[in-house]
Structures are given as structure tokens and as C-alpha cells.
Amino acid sequence: MRYGLIGTGYWAAEIHAQALAEADDVEFVGVWGRDRAKADAVVEARDVRAYDDPDELFADVEAVSFAVPPDVQADLAVRAARAGCHLLLEKPVALSTAAAGEIVDAAARTGVASVVFLTSRFVPGIQRWLEDTAAESGWLGGQATVLAALDTPGNPFGNSPWRREHGALWDVGPHMLSLLLPVLGPVEDVRAARGPGDTVHLALRHAEGASSQLTLSLTMPEPATGQRVVFYGEGGWRELPTGLAFDATQALGEAIRALQDAADTGQAHACDVRFGTRIVEILEAAQRDLG
Is the pTM for the entire model greater than 0.90? Predict the structure, then answer.
């Protein structure tokens, strides 16, 4: 499958480009970015082309890997889908349900496959734990916490304007929701409250009766950083183990294979753009509740 890459930042250059270069049954064709000089730097070490026009790139490939801010991704993903390209999207897929819905509609009209790279969902150890947990019945609720420090020296995401503007809700919120929803089911009610910095607290009621709570932050002091995911119910407590092997490039390689399988079989992946849109709906509801 011939792939193009949209994006030239750290995540595009260090993770997406490397994963595409290493993936089996993938021909990495070229890169487009809003900064041509950065696009030239991404392709310099690889035998691929820097494009001046994203639509020209879409015409030359069968699939597109996106690593750009969500508001930029949403418009370009619609154009790529209309050009018949399968979509490997980043989270969140957009910054509004309306914009995400346009990607869903474009993909449905052309029949292209889609996968949203919700990183944990493509780490084999985490995915096995999640499948085992979802297979059990009687879950009454869950808790997910991510406390991060965007200002840590050397953080490659520290200068990300969209993360600075939209905060932890939109950045790490999708990752936690991608773990809660497969176990507890769809969400029918959302409440949100602010904490210090960009910290937000969410309380969710799930359609099947369970509830869950999330605490999300990118502005914690470094000693307070950490992550936890746990479910509780009739069988007791089940916590996501710490120390599971994790490599972002390898996880993206799994997502690339998942997209190719979806394209080959016509079977939608669990993390397709429709799932990504359901996450955006929850985030948008939380944003409204925050005012």
C-alpha cells in the first residue's frame, strides 16, 4: 500500500515517518507539511518526495498518515477520503462533532477504511488486558487519571500551540476514553469541573448503568505526574498493570497493519473514525459543561 504523510513536526518526523519506513507491505511515497523546509528535512534521510500540494500527494497514494493538529487534520482528512485514500488519523480526529462528522461522511461515501491512532489501543499487552477486562461482566464503574507536565524541560510537545490552547481534555482525554468505553459502553451524560491549571475532572454516566470518573492534566508539577486506569464491579477491582512494554513507533506499526487489514477485508476497525467521533462528542459535551 502506497502511503503519504501529512505533517512535519516531532511526532510526524520521529514516529510516523519511521513507522512507515519500517512497515512491511508499505511503500512510503512522500510528505506534505505547511512548512516546506521542514518537509524537506523529514524526507532528507529517506528516499521519498516532499510535496508542495496535499491534493497532489493524495492523488499519488492509497493511504494517508496524519500527524498535524486536529483542526488542520479534519479538513485535510475529508479531502483525502474524497480522493479515495484510506485514513490513519491522530486523536482527537477534530475539535468539534460537526467537523468529525464530515470525515465520517466522506469516508462512508468513498468506502475508505480508517483507523485512529489511540496509542494504548495498539500496544499488544494493553490490548490483551483490555479485551480480557471487557469480556468480564458486572462492571459498575471505572476511573482514569493522567497527570502530566507539559513544561518538563525537553518535552517534545511543550511548544505545541493546540495543546496549550485546548489542554489536557482534548490531548490526553481521548486516550483515557478509548480505554473506558470498550468496557463500560457508550456515554449518555457528561459533567465536568475545572481544577488547577488546565486540570479537568469528568463524571460520566454510561448508557448501561455504569459510571466513570476522569482526571486529566498537562500542568502538574513533575513529582505529581502519573497515570492510572482501574475498573470495579461485582468481581472486585481490575487495574491496568504498570510497566507494560510500550514503544510508540511499534504501536503505530500495529495501527498501520490494522488499517491495511480493514482496507483488505472491508471490516471496520474498533478504533475507526466513527469511534473517534464518539470520543469527540464526549469532549465537546465536557467543554460545554465547563463553559
Answer: yes
